[in-house]
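Supplementary Methods. Inverse-folding protocol.

Structures were first reduced to a discrete structure-token string of length 689. This string, shown here, constituted the complete conditioning input.
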């Protein structure tokens, strides 16, 4: 790649930080109820935690020559420097917004104690709570630089205490003995992060458990005078690399490596920025912390815990989320299968109820004409109703095959335990493929035909999101239910690939990554270029979570230069740079709101014929080259127009949508239109029966 070529793409991780900053901006939106803004602060922190565990850890691995990546050590160091600058900037914004929100809590008669001891009327409660509920679980460890280092767990909050010994005669600090340091983990599994204190004069009081400990440090260290106390936390490398060699049992390999995740290399040491330099220098020496590992924070760390902040006002300070709607056409008929025999059905989650998929599986489990069910599972909900119905089907004599992707990051253990449960129930389990992740979200229900000699009939379910009833409440996705023979045949071929029965499948309608997806996408883009070149309209709308693949970005640049109008609706990473001579016809919209925008929709005008696809795939290199993904065409004209209308609603959003510029700035779309469109609420209105 030439130097000039490098500047045609945003860096992936800097782009992601722009997205996470957009999440943080929701916490500053005064149109939102207070506790919804607090929830976005929690989401921001949780996102950043995973970013350090995976992305930053990968760059550090390259520098230490422990990981292979498509960058040099020098490039990794440059990227880490940029990340540190941007994260430190965002952290300053984060604590500014946090302080502002705490002030607004006070205006609503909710006081979260900060940076101070409790008021006199709470001192006895705090002291008693500490002695009874906290103190028994504290296990402070004295720290000396020349001793064996105490291991610090990731995702845990610690207090570092600096103190001096008391003079036995005077009881005053004896400075001649120097400072002593102690490390103390907050007992997160034994006590909640936020403690509700008794109300006083109509005001509700809350307190960080860390502050309750700070207020009682003299009880923990009776022979010392406390000098100061600060919070610290670390992040560790949580990525897992699996062996793809023959003879390696992938289940055993994953179990072994998931356990090692807890002791991965350091990727971030976060500390209270009020800590004096000499205090910080001591910690760096004691724990082998390098300067590049340091990330400045505030007094309170691990603020993803804000999602658990008690709300004494009840639901007053939260927005009311509309309940998933029923679909009358599916409720008037006992069998969803019979409805799909007449017409393809689209389901929009969470706007419409996920219960229809549950019902489809439940009916299949008891339908005497159903012989076989095949389904993929990427992220499985705990105590999943979907899994329960698959087990029921197997127990009712159906042949059930489930492909379980064990390599779904942070869901490996849950997926393993769930697959074992299914296997014991008689379900055939197929595990991860070597060198690949299976990210497709497809299901197939095959029925025996009552007329002799005819092939089995069936129905298929293709979705942009997981078979997960929990995420279906907060992720915005679309699913297609169909009995079209050509689509069913294609999905059979997908499962044949997963089962190792087919290595060169032919797909007629479905686009499948690693087989025909990239070639077909290029053909569709070139088709728009050709139309534009002949003076006709060229138009592309692409909605996805991430755009990173440089080969596909270059195709979009070529289309833009040819006069094709392109709108990208990209929630997260977007490495395409807009507003350049080669991208002047490309606009990038980002939407962050109450639901996570998760659907992938691809639209190509095609001289008025309008090709439209639903997909599980983002245009990331991993999705297009290292995963099994699917994209299904929407063929029913009515369904097609419905999805196009929803895409246009997203492009018209002038409340929650931002335009991303060539500096990765989130510029809120504000126009003079008297009609204010918040696309997620507008989608509810549009889909109302």
């Amino acid at each position: 790649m030439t130097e000039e070529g490098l500047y045609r793409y945003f860096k992936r991780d800097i782009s992601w930080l722009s997205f996470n900053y957009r999440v943080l901006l929701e916490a500053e939106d005064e149109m939102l109820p207070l506790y919804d803004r607090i929830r976005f602060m929690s989401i921001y922190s949780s996102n950043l935690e995973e970013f350090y565990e995976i992305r930053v850890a990968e760059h550090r691995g390259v520098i230490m020559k422990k990981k292979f990546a498509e960058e040099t050590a020098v490039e990794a160091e440059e990227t880490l420097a940029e990340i540190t600058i941007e994260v430190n900037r965002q952290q300053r914004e984060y604590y500014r917004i946090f302080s502002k929100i705490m002030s607004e809590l006070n205006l609503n008669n909710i006081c979260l104690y900060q940076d101070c001891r409790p008021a006199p009327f709470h001192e006895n409660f705090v002291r008693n709570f500490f002695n009874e509920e906290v103190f028994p679980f504290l296990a402070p460890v004295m720290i000396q630089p020349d001793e064996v280092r105490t291991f610090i767990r990731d995702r845990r909050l610690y207090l570092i205490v600096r103190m001096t010994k008391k003079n036995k005669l005077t009881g005053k600090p004896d400075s001649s003995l120097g400072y002593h340091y102690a490390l103390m983990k907050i007992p997160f599994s034994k006590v909640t992060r936020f403690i509700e204190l008794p109300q006083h004069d109509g005001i509700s009081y809350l307190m960080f458990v860390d502050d309750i400990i700070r207020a009682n440090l003299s009880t923990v260290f009776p022979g010392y005078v406390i000098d100061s106390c600060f919070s610290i936390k670390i992040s560790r490398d949580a990525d897992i690399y699996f062996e793809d060699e023959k003879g390696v049992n992938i289940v055993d390999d994953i179990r072994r490596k998931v356990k090692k995740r807890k002791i991965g290399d350091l990727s971030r040491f976060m500390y209270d920025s009020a800590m004096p330099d000499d205090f910080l220098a001591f910690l760096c020496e004691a724990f082998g912390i390098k300067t590049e590992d340091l990330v400045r924070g505030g007094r309170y760390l691990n603020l993803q815990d804000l999602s658990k902040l008690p709300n004494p006002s009840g639901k007053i300070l939260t927005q009311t989320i509309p309940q998933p709607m029923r679909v009358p056409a599916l409720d008037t008929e006992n069998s969803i299968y019979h409805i799909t025999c007449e017409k393809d059905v689209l389901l929009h989650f969470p706007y419409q109820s996920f219960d229809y998929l549950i019902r489809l599986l439940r009916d299949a489990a008891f339908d005497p004409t159903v012989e076989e069910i095949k389904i993929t599972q990427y992220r499985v909900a705990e105590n999943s109703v979907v899994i329960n119905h698959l087990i029921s089907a197997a127990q009712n004599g159906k042949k059930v095959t489930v492909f379980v992707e064990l390599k779904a990051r942070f869901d490996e253990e849950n997926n393993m335990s769930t697959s074992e449960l299914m296997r014991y129930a008689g379900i055939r389990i197929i595990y991860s493929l070597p060198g690949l992740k299976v990210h497709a979200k497809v299901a197939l229900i095959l029925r025996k035909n009552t007329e002799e000699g005819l092939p089995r009939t069936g129905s298929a379910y293709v979705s942009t999101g997981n078979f997960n009833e929990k995420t279906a409440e907060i992720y915005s996705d679309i699913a297609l239910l169909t009995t079209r023979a050509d689509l069913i045949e294609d999905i059979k071929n997908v499962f044949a690939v997963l089962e190792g029965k087919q290595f060169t499948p032919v797909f007629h309608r479905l686009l499948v990554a690693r087989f025909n997806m990239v070639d077909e996408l290029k053909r569709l883009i070139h088709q728009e270029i050709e139309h534009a070149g002949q003076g006709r309209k060229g138009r592309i709308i692409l909605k996805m979570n991430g755009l990173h693949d440089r080969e596909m970005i270059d195709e979009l640049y070529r289309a833009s230069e040819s006069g094709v109008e392109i709108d990208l609706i990209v929630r997260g990473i977007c490495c395409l740079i807009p507003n350049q001579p080669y991208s002047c016809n490309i606009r990038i919209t980002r939407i962050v709101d109450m639901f996570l925008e998760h659907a992938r929709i691809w639209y190509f005008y095609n001289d008025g014929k309008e090709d439209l696809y639903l997909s599980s795939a983002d245009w990331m290199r991993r999705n297009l080259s290292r995963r099994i993904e699917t994209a299904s065409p929407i063929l029913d004209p009515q369904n097609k127009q419905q999805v196009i209308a929803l895409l246009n609603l997203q492009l018209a959003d002038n409340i929650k949508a931002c335009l991303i510029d060539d500096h990765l700035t989130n510029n809120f779309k504000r126009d003079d239109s008297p009609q204010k469109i918040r696309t997620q609420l507008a989608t509810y209105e549009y889909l109302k029966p």
